[in-house]
UniProtKB/TrEMBL annotation:
Pfam families: adh_short_C2. The keyword Oxidoreductase applies. Keywords: Oxidoreductase. The keyword GTP-binding does not apply. Belongs to the short-chain dehydrogenases/reductases (SDR) family. Residues 10-195 form the Ketoreductase domain. It comes from the Bacteria. This is SDR family oxidoreductase.
């Protein structure tokens, strides 16, 4: 390791910043010195409250509908005005529903479309909107919060697995297209100890933990540490998938 690995003077934009992983990631990046533009979905008061609790100064809460490229573009303009820069973009807004893989009738078109918007179209729209600022940084970084479901094909539903696989492939393509100005990395958790998956009860979580080589679920902080590492230590990494799953993919 060489040089300064802190994030002082940098600005990070976090979509999905009010969720468990998002809030933990915002805190980790803020502790390293970054100013945070924390983006929630609809509840501005909640986004502002999470931002206000972050260590350090200069953080702000925002909301944007990630299904709207126009709102993402407007958000980028507000961040440019408020922060004057964007060095790190974290695409972490997520949604899913637990549906048995064989129950294709329950996997309705609306949920399939929603998952593809959240995991493919919205991240592309965010990169498009923030590309100029990320490239101007001289050390631009995009981190997409993926899932080991992309490669194991074991996840909350079939469409979720497909959407995360698309996210990883999109990330690799963008890493090649945007280099050398911007790096793109996927951080790929296994099961995380949050309430992200509706219908996954404590008993199900305990079964998952018991079947994981490291014998526990990932914490939001585990995922946040991986994002921080991408920004501070893994500076020669792009187009890669960083797994944070306790060996669950094995």
């Amino acid at each position: 390791m060489s040089g300064d690995v802190g994030l002082a003077g940098k600005a990070a934009v976090l979509f999905g910043g009010t969720g468990g992983i998002g809030a933990a990631t915002a805190s980790a990046l803020a502790r390293a010195g970054a100013r945070i533009a924390l983006v929630g979905g609809r509840d501005l008061a909640r986004a502002e409250a999470v931002a206000a609790r972050l260590p350090g100064d200069g953080h702000r809460g925002y909301v944007a509908d990630i299904a709207s490229s126009e709102e993402i573009g407007a958000l980028a303009a507000r961040v440019a005005k408020d922060f004057g820069r964007a060095d790190i973009l974290v695409n972490g807004a997520g949604v899913t529903r637990a549906i048995p893989h064989a129950d294709l009738d329950a996997l309705d078109d609306a949920l399939i479309d929603l998952l593809m918007v959240h995991n493919v179209r919205a991240p592309i729209a965010a990169v498009r909107a923030f590309r100029e600022m990320l490239a101007a940084s001289g050390d631009g970084l995009v981190v997409n919060i993926s899932s080991i479901a992309a490669t194991t094909a074991v996840g909350s539903n079939v469409a979720y697995c497909a959407a995360k696989a698309a996210m990883d492939t999109m990330g690799a393509a963008l890493a090649r297209a945007l280099a050398p100005a911007i790096r793109v990395v996927s951080v790929s958790p296994g099961a995380v100890d949050t309430d992200f998956v509706p219908g996954r009860d404590r008993q199900a979580s305990e079964r998952i933990a018991a079947s994981t080589p490291l014998r526990r679920l990932a914490s939001p902080e585990d995922v946040a540490d991986a994002v921080l590492a991408c920004a501070t230590h893994l500076r020669f990494t792009t187009g890669s998938v960083v797994q944070v799953d306790g060996g669950r993919h094995l």
